[in-house]
Design goal:
heterodimer, A: mainly beta, 12 strands, 0% helix, B: 113 residues, mainly beta, four-stranded antiparallel sheet
């Protein structure tokens, strides 16, 4: 069964601090995709990144970076030098590729508050 | 290139009523998926439509039903509304078999009183 766990319900930091959001997943599929989405107060889901299970290279995009480790079934997200505009709920999600399942399974989200 | 659009933006209904939400997929997409996001939770998959048929369904009762039209747009219907149906309803579109490239709409916020 697919499952995504985001153990951190809420995180509060001061601007310019680095912050890491944790994501642990479960799947029996050998081919799958992992995602991070940002949801600001407006409610729209903003796509941040997608990784497939064969690509464990870490990725950096500006202040954002992602650490994918299959050995620990984790896909963590780090924001460097956080800004107030980073305040939002962040969701990690999983999609299996081989089972024929077309759905995304989301974690419960981590609410990040960046204080000035 | 228009993205995924949903209507209405907000909706208030009374317990026991019925509601219809609408979704137009991104241009070129043929598959629509619906998700329910309760307050403080992650989105949960309701069902997916492709070729005007329900292809996959999550753990939702039969009160939740849908439809897809020949132009690929879709409706989500919820009958006999309960207070617990209050949520943000998100529509996502993709090409069939490419769930890893789903594009989400802005959502419809449903409040049941």
């Amino acid at each position: 069964a697919q499952k995504v766990t985001q153990a951190q319900t809420e995180i509060s930091v001061v601007e310019k601090e680095d912050v890491t959001l944790d994501c642990v997943y479960e799947t029996r599929d050998t081919t799958y995709y992992l995602f991070w989405y940002k949801q600001p107060p407006s409610g729209e889901l903003v796509f941040l990144i997608r990784r497939n299970s064969f690509d464990e290279q870490n990725e950096i995009s500006g202040r954002y970076s992602w650490n994918f480790q299959k050995s620990t079934s984790s896909f963590n997200f780090t924001i460097t030098a956080s800004q107030v505009v980073d305040s939002a709920v962040y969701f990690c999600a999983l999609s299996e590729a081989l089972t024929g399942s077309e759905k995304l399974v989301f974690g419960k989200g981590t609410k990040l508050t960046v204080n000035p | 290139d228009a993205g995924v659009t949903q209507s209405p933006t907000h909706l208030i209904k009374t317990r026991g009523q019925q509601v219809t939400l609408r979704c137009s997929p991104k241009s070129g997409h043929d598959t629509v998926s619906w998700y329910q996001q309760a307050l403080g939770q992650g989105p949960q998959f309701i069902f997916q439509y492709y070729e005007e048929e329900e292809r996959q369904r999550g753990n939702f009762p039969d009160r939740f039903s849908g439809h897809q039209f020949p132009n690929y747009s879709s409706e989500l219907n919820v009958n006999a509304l309960l207070l617990g149906d209050s949520a943000l309803y998100l529509c996502a579109s993709s090409l069939f078999g490419r769930a890893y490239e789903q594009y989400f709409g802005p959502g419809t916020r449903l409040t049941v009183t």
